[in-house]
Design a protein that fits this description.
Elements (H helix, E strand, L loop, with lengths): L6 E9 L2 E9 L3 H19 L5 H13 L8 E9 L4 E7 L5 E3 L5 E3 L18 E4 L5 E5 L1 H4 L11 H11 L4 H16 L10 E5 L3
Helix pairs in contact: 1-2, 4-5
Length: 207
């Protein structure tokens, strides 16, 4: 049952003025991947609700998922907590596609991995990183179903095409940015079969 996916996205408050956000991609397809994804989301919400720093949240999530992981599944995951008053974003990137941070002034940067995928090794460690969003900045998170979408001739959508597209969409509201990316991927793929889930999440800090 390939129709059941293993991608996840989530956002939820974790304290006064604090917003947690996550995008992940579970290995494999079908029901096992979907169940593993739901467990990941449930554990992440539970751990994040304790107020632990993001690196300790990821370490705890990793330990829980890796324990008794008889199917040897894993999840790449970006998890961050944004202070809505100051724009400070503390995050861990567990082997996931680097999100794009599009600055209001025109610059663009990525948030690279800070640790391995979760559930591979129970004792894996994670490093927290931080950046600060200014009013008008946009953060775009996605799974590899975007960049690995195939055209009928076999060409990949690719990271460079995504970067160009995000630069074109940078001034749009977050919802329109997501809609624009999904529409572009659909148009690029045409009649080609979709082999992976496509998940996007965008956040815009209001001026």
């Amino acid at each position: 049952m390939r129709e059941i996916g293993g991608d996840l996205y989530d956002y939820f408050p974790v304290g006064e003025g604090q917003l947690a956000l996550a995008v992940g991609d579970v290995s494999g397809k079908g029901v096992p991947a979907s169940l593993f994804m739901m467990m990941c989301r449930t554990v992440l919400r539970s751990v994040a609700g304790t107020g632990l720093p993001v690196d300790r949240c990821l370490a705890r999530l990793n330990a829980v998922l890796a324990e008794n992981n008889s199917m040897c599944m894993f999840v790449t995951l970006f998890f961050g907590v944004l202070d809505l008053d100051t724009g400070l974003l503390r995050y861990c990137n567990a082997g996931h596609n680097p999100p794009w941070l599009l600055r209001a002034g025109g610059a663009a940067e990525i948030l690279p991995p800070t640790g391995p995928a979760a559930a591979v090794l129970e004792t894996a460690g994670y490093t927290a990183a931080e950046t600060r969003l200014a009013p008008g900045d946009r953060l775009f998170l996605y799974t590899d179903g975007v960049t690995e979408a195939l055209a009928p001739g076999g060409e990949l959508f690719g990271s460079e095409r995504l970067e160009r597209l995000l630069r074109e969409l940078r001034a749009r509201p977050a919802a329109e940015m997501v809609d624009g990316v999904v529409a572009a991927v659909d148009a690029f793929a045409g009649a080609a079969e979709q082999f992976d889930d496509i998940t996007c999440l965008a956040l815009a800090l209001r001026p």
